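From the pipeline queue, job 12 of 40. The input is one protein chain; the requested action is below.

Action: predict structure.
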Amino acid sequence: MNTLDQLHADIDTRVKAIRDSHADWLCGMGCDGCCHRLAEIPMLSPAEWDYLKQGLAELPLELLREISQGIAALAEQTARPIVCPLLDRSAGMCRVYAHRPVACRTYGFYVQRDQGLYCNDIKSRVADGAWADVVWGNQDVIDRRLADLGDAKELTEWFAEWTKGESSVGGIDK
């Protein structure tokens, strides 16, 4: 098992433990609030990008074109928050869910020292004591493990490099 696969397995274990102990957990299929309110363009390690690229390559051409346009627009967008270009807004789900980055896998289940990495809905459940017993994952540990996978770049930068100098990528005409 490679390093990214092991990281995914460790995250899946923590997520399962939280879901198993809290049947009313908010993060799940159709919950896309975080995807609509990204503070920044997602950062990906080289291994995450390679894995995401596999997921993108499996998409139908029309959908890949639509995502490509969204990523190109995102590169120019200065307003925040941003909407993830991988989100299918009508279905409320990620188009490359199985290949999503680590940040997407940990959001709502991991916290970082001195920062809450979860939405206001989860924050209110914690504040009212409903989820006082949650054993959160440690985002600082995840970030250290990601740093070991290489220098992270913005999704838009990875995508631009992937499409640079080619007349088409995955059948997308430029």
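Job complete. Residues 3-160 form one domain.
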